[in-house]
């Protein structure tokens, strides 16, 4: 059985290092992109099983990335877990969920262990997960 592929798109290198390390230890194949444009390129090239997407990316933000993902039929079906901050405007979050975000985690309060547990649940389910607060 091949490893599940996770694409992590975030500008936060410390968070990316922590998440990537823990996901690799759990047996996932992990790619990281630090800006939206690179994330879209890697998504198209690597066909991930799940995308972890930081909503507050500089330049092409998370919502813009979600909109671009829907332009590619097979990428529109990929699970997307949004990384958000508690201060994110509720309307902005709702728009991201409408555009294809399956669930979300608060990046400023969710532990790395809880993050990995959520990723495990999403990838083990057959249907997109509902929004989850941690």
Task: Return the structural class.
Answer: alpha/beta
> Which sequence of strands runs across the widest sheet?
2-1-3-4-5
The CATH architecture can be given as 3-Layer(aba) Sandwich
CATH homologous superfamily title: Response regulator
* Helix residue percentage: 40-55%
Under CATH, the topology is which?
Answer: Rossmann fold
What is the count of distinct domains?
1
Please outline the major beta sheet: 5 strands, parallel
Radius of gyration: 13 Å
Number of H/I helices: 5
Q: Give the low-pLDDT segments.
A: 127-134
> What form results from the Cα inertia axes?
globular
* Element order: H for helix, E for strand: EHEHEHEHEH
Number of strands: 5
| Strand composition percent | 15-25%
Distance between the first and last residues' Cα: 31 Å
**CATH class annotation:** Alpha Beta
Mean pLDDT level: 86
């Amino acid at each position: 059985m091949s490893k599940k592929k996770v694409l992590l798109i975030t500008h936060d290198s410390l968070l990316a290092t922590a998440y990537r390390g823990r996901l690799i230890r759990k047996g996932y194949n992990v790619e990281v992109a630090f800006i939206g444009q690179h994330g879209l390129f890697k998504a198209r090239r690597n066909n991930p099983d799940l995308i972890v997407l930081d909503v507050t990316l500089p330049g092409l933000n998370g919502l813009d990335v979600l909109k671009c993902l829907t332009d590619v039929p097979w990428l529109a079906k990929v699970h997307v877990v949004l990384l958000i901050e508690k201060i994110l405007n509720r309307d902005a979050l709702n728009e991201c969920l409408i555009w294809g975000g399956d669930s979300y985690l608060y990046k400023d309060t969710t532990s790395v262990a809880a993050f990995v547990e959520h990723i495990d649940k999403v990838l083990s389910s057959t249907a997109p997960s509902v929004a989850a607060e941690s």
